[in-house]
Write a sequence for this structure.
């Protein structure tokens, strides 16, 4: 084992500028190396710590790779059936309007099986926050085609590429949800570069803070990688994401403070 | 103060729930139970007690709202009718698998498929054997009057919380729609303290609460399954409820619940006028099922007829309880038709006494 | 040189060697070790520790929150 080349003169408590937030547990995440889920989890945890709302948060986890998110986030959590997280969150928030309630859902969960729950929670204007991780694939079950899989993109159930004539078009749920009067803040972010991470964190913070305003639902989409599903290294996957996913799922705010962004 | 009112069965469910201190109702319209949601919306329980009432976008969403609310330790319930209850099965399985209390009302109509809007008892298997995937049971209560519709709401909530398990009121379109006088309990306050397992926000210095039905470790999953099975055995030991009618000198026994049991009371009278000594056993809990009592009765009577508005579902549980000691038969109309008292006596004569 | 301002501590056993932090580093401080940790991952370490400015970029992109960053305040 190589020696760590830590500069001991600098590595002192008074010089500390970044450490893992205590709202993340010490459990090693089960995600593949380089997976954006870990970064997204961390940002949510950091915001919860910074807003000092750990004891007021109830999170709802999906079915998919992030089903076990409750092992990593040190807040009260419920594990929903596939796609149903916004229904659970609706009840939780209605029963405890003073709490901060969020769901964390992948693209299969939110944009396929949970389309109705997502659209209707958004349309009712539930004062909850939805974190939507879009990597264009079903990661947990082994890389099958998702509702968000790009045209011609290969997956284990579109092995020759997504033929939109046969398999339908990818669904831009975030654009759809932004149209609904019940949503107050809808944005699309990424977490693959330091700059994107900083922006995504601001968006996550805004999405949580909006709950205090009681003006409707906030949705933060995070376009992310699935290097195992895409069969690439983490770095290749991030490059592929920038080249292929971002043109179809463009970064930035779609709706801010209840107004569509032009 | 108790209050006497003339109400529909469905309305009695709704009013009793408000008075039982229910925290929330989530539902979706379907005949013949839409009065539950209509009554609740008209009564403005959010003003009376602060109770949440929400019309969901589907039965699937409604049961998952129940799941989320139950996970917060709240008294939550939903109601539907057969096709809607089929849709709710996924959520019910998760609720049972997460050991959460809640109340589900099934105002049964004839099936399969869209079937009919007329009353039926053809969801007995679905209600008592689990319904969704996995080895679980619901506490199943079977009211046979509007009074019991009201009374079983509180009982259902109490049992659900006692065992951390979903409870179901299994009734039918006839009882849901009929009007009778009903004594309503006085208003109970809503809970202000919640169970220690509830996800209400992590308490400082305490472990977080996680509500999940997932355990990828098979040894742990088996352990969990054994634990809930133990809970069901406890229910069978402690929670069996039934009524008997004219059973003391009975030579033949009718077993019926809900609407069928009401008609069977008349059948008992008609049969006795003909000199046939018949009694009636009316299970009020279908799970746990009154196995012991039926086994005892099997030592007393010469034959048992199960009367259900179905092709014969409860009759299987009766046979399991009787263990071949006496003849057990079934009679029942289907597709939304309610049998007459006379038909039942004829069936008893032909299938059990003469057969 | 002599502009040492920062340093990082990698939780070696939790590092999955995904390789996202080296390109995130503006001063090319971080590399993946030739050696592996107990799980067989080539963990991240400071190959050029003197160049670290404590900018936090590596920690921001780390999906496993294994990097702690220190920066000397002048």
């Amino acid at each position: 084992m190589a020696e760590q080349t830590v500069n001991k003169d600098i590595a002192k408590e008074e010089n500390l500028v970044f450490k893992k937030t205590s709202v993340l547990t010490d459990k090693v995440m089960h995600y593949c190396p380089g997976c954006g889920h870990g970064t997204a989890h961390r940002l949510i945890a950091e915001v919860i710590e910074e807003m000092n709302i750990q004891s007021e948060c109830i999170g709802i986890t999906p079915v998919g790779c992030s089903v076990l998110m409750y092992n990593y986030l040190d807040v009260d959590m419920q594990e929903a059936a596939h796609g149903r997280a916004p229904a659970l969150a609706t009840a939780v928030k209605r029963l405890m309007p003073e709490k901060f309630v969020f769901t964390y859902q992948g693209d299969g969960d939110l944009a396929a099986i949970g389309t109705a729950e997502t659209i209707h929670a958004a349309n009712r204007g539930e004062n909850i926050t939805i974190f939507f991780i879009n990597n264009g694939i079903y990661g947990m079950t082994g890389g099958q085609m998702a509702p968000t899989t790009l045209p011609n993109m290969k997956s284990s159930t579109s092995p020759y590429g997504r033929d939109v004539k046969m398999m339908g078009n990818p669904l831009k749920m975030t654009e759809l949800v932004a149209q609904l009067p019940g949503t107050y803040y809808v944005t699309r972010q990424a977490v693959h570069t330091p700059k994107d991470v900083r922006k995504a964190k601001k968006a996550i913070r805004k999405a949580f803070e909006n709950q205090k305003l009681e003006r409707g639902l906030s949705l933060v989409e995070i376009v992310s990688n699935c290097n195992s599903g895409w069969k690439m290294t983490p770095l290749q996957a991030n490059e592929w994401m920038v080249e292929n996913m971002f043109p179809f799922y463009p970064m930035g705010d779609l709706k801010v403070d209840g107004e569509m962004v032009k | 103060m108790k209050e006497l009112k003339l109400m529909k069965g469905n309305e009695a469910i709704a009013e009793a729930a408000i008075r039982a201190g229910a925290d929330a109702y989530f539902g979706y319209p379907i005949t013949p139970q839409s009065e539950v949601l209509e009554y609740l919306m008209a009564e403005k329980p959010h003003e009376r007690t602060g109770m949440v009432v929400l019309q969901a976008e589907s039965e699937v969403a409604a049961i998952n709202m129940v799941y989320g609310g139950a996970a917060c330790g709240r008294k939550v319930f939903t109601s539907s009718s057969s096709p809607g209850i089929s849709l709710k099965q996924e959520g019910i399985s998760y609720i049972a698998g997460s050991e959460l209390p809640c109340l589900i009302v099934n105002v049964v109509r004839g099936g399969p498929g869209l079937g009919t809007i007329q009353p039926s008892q053809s969801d007995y298997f679905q209600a008592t054997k689990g319904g969704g995937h996995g080895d679980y049971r619901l506490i199943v209560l079977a009211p046979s009057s509007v009074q019991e519709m009201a009374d079983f709401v509180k009982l259902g909530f109490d049992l659900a919380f006692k065992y951390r398990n979903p409870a179901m009121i299994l009734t039918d379109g006839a009882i849901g729609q009929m009007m009778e006088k009903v004594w309503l309990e006085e208003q109970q306050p809503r809970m202000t303290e919640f169970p220690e397992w509830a996800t209400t926000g992590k308490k400082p210095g305490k472990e977080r609460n996680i509500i999940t039905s997932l355990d990828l470790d098979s040894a742990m999953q088996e352990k969990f399954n054994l634990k809930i099975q133990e809970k069901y055995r406890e229910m069978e030991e402690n929670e069996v409820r039934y009524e008997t009618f004219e059973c003391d000198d009975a030579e033949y026994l009718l077993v019926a619940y809900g609407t069928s049991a009401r008609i069977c009371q008349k059948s008992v009278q008609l049969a006795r006028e003909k000199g046939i000594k018949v009694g009636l056993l009316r299970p009020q809990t279908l799970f746990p099922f009154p196995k012991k009592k039926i086994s005892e009765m099997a030592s007393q009577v010469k034959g048992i007829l199960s009367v259900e508005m179905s092709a014969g579902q409860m009759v299987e549980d009766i046979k399991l309880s009787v263990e071949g000691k006496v003849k057990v038969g079934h009679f029942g109309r289907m597709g939304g038709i309610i049998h007459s008292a006379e038909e039942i006596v004829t069936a008893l004569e032909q299938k059990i006494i003469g057969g | 040189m002599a502009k040492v301002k920062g340093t990082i501590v990698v939780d070696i056993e939790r590092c999955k060697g995904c390789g996202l932090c080296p390109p995130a580093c503006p001063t090319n401080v971080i590399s993946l070790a030739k050696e592996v940790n107990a799980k067989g991952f080539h963990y991240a370490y400071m190959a050029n520790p003197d160049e670290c400015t404590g900018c936090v970029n590596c920690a921001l992109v780390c999906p496993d929150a294994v990097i702690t960053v220190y920066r000397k305040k002048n």
Q: What stands out?
A: The two ends of chain A are 54 Å apart (CA to CA).
